[in-house]
Specification:
Helix 1 packs parallel to helix 3 and helix 3 packs antiparallel against helix 4. Strand 1 and strand 2 form a beta hairpin. The chain has a single domain, classed as Four Helix Bundle (Hemerythrin (Met), subunit A) (Up-down Bundle). It contains 4 helices and 2 strands. By secondary structure, it is an all-alpha fold. It has a two-stranded antiparallel ribbon.
């Protein structure tokens, strides 16, 4: 149940809430040009696919989730260090996919207000990732440090 709650909260905050805030702060544009909307949605879908692949892989291989809300466990923590699948390209492919999704949303909305939201979220999530990395170092030791040398944080 705790894991479902974590995924549900993540979905509400990152997939629904952040784009809704981008749209609202941009004075809620109702008509988006199709010429911009189609590529924007293609980028957004690619980001969601990467995030979903990462979540499924983490559940199957890692047997948990690394997400802590600034030190508070939101879902069961991973039991195995993941270095294959989407994790061979990025140490944070779930978040990388979310950032790609935001780029699609930003391309669709195309406003400085939406850009401001993305910049703020990236800054906050970078702090979160640094906290998670400390926990992963404590949990997986030298294996994580070696992995960290080989694979970039995001892209």
């Amino acid at each position: 149940m705790k894991q479902l709650l974590g995924y549900f909260l993540g979905f509400l905050i990152f997939i629904v809430g952040v784009p809704a805030l981008m749209w609202w702060l941009s004075q809620m544009p109702s008509a988006l040009p199709v010429g911009r909307l189609v590529p924007a949605m293609a980028v957004a879908v690619c980001g969601l696919v990467l995030s979903i692949w990462s979540i499924v892989y983490m559940k199957r291989v890692g047997k948990g989730n690394p997400f802590d809300a600034m030190g508070h466990e939101v879902a069961p923590r991973t039991k195995h260090l993941m270095t294959d699948g989407p994790y061979r390209f990025s140490r944070n492919p779930m978040l990388s996919g979310t950032y790609i999704y935001y780029m699609g949303m930003l391309l669709a909305i195309w406003s400085w207000q939406a850009l401001t939201v993305v910049v703020a979220v990236v800054a906050l999530m970078t702090l979160q990732v640094r906290s998670e990395e400390k926990r992963l170092e404590a949990d997986f030791g030298e294996d994580y440090l070696e992995y960290k040398k080989r694979v970039r944080r995001f892209f």
